[in-house]
């Protein structure tokens, strides 16, 4: 009886390991698929990529946001990027393009805007690879070199 129980527990444990490995491979595949879809559209314009796992957030958000000349972010419907995060202000931050460079500005938000982990106080120039933190959300700024 003990041997049957031991074999059963072993097979259940092995099954759980395979199940776990399957889900890890699936997540990697889906992430690579999203990146390839993004690259297949061949956007040369700068964009923001969500760094957070979407499943960990309690609101809907896109993976990628293409940047225009002026982008506003916040909870208000009128923003270009509306993020329904309880830690976001209605008008939280703005990204502006000037002379082919992008600049990040906090719009007086209560919880602040962070660039690479440091709260910004003034307008700052963005470079590719910068991490922008707004409330619970973190974006990666990507500007591909021509």
Features:
5-stranded mixed β-sheet, 11 strands, single chain, 2 domains, Tumour Suppressor Smad4, 6-stranded antiparallel β-sheet, alpha+beta, 146 residues, 1 helix
Fold and architecture overview:
By secondary structure, this protein is an alpha+beta fold. The protein has two domains: 1-42; 47-142, Sandwich (Tumour Suppressor Smad4), CATH 2.60.200.20. 27% of the residues lie in helices and 29% in strands. The mean pLDDT is 86. Residues 71-120 form the FHA domain. InterPro entries: Cell_Proc_Reg/RNA_Proc, FHA_dom, SMAD_FHA_dom_sf.
> Which bin fits the share of residues in helices?
25-40%
Structural class: alpha+beta
Q: What is the C-level CATH assignment of the largest domain? A: Mainly Beta
Distance between the termini: 70 Å
Q: How many helix segments?
A: 1
Strand order of the largest sheet: 2-1-11-10-7-8
- What oligomeric assembly is this protein in? single chain
Mean pLDDT: 86
* Total domain count: 2
Beta-strand residue percentage: 25-35%
CATH architecture of the largest domain: Sandwich
- Largest beta-sheet details: 6 strands, antiparallel
Low-confidence stretches: none
How many strands in all? 11
Note the overall shape: elongated
Listing every helix as H and every strand as E from the N terminus to the C terminus, the arrangement reads HEEEEEEEEEEE
Return Rg in Å.
21 Å
CATH topology of the largest domain: Tumour Suppressor Smad4
């Amino acid at each position: 009886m003990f041997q049957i129980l031991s074999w059963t527990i072993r097979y259940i444990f092995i099954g759980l390991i395979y199940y776990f490995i399957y889900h890890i491979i699936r997540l990697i595949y889906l992430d690579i698929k999203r990146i390839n879809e993004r690259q297949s559209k061949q956007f040369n314009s700068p964009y923001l990529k969500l760094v957070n796992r979407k499943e960990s957030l309690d609101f809907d958000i896109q993976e990628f946001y293409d940047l225009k000349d002026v982008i506003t972010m916040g909870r208000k419907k009128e923003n270009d990027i509306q993020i329904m995060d309880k830690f976001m202000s209605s008008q939280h931050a703005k990204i502006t393009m000037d002379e082919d460079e992008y600049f990040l500005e906090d719009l007086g938000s209560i919880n602040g805007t962070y660039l690479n982990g440091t709260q910004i106080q003034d307008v700052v120039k963005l470079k590719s690879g910068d991490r922008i933190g707004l409330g619970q959300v973190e974006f990666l700024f990507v500007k591909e070199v021509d």
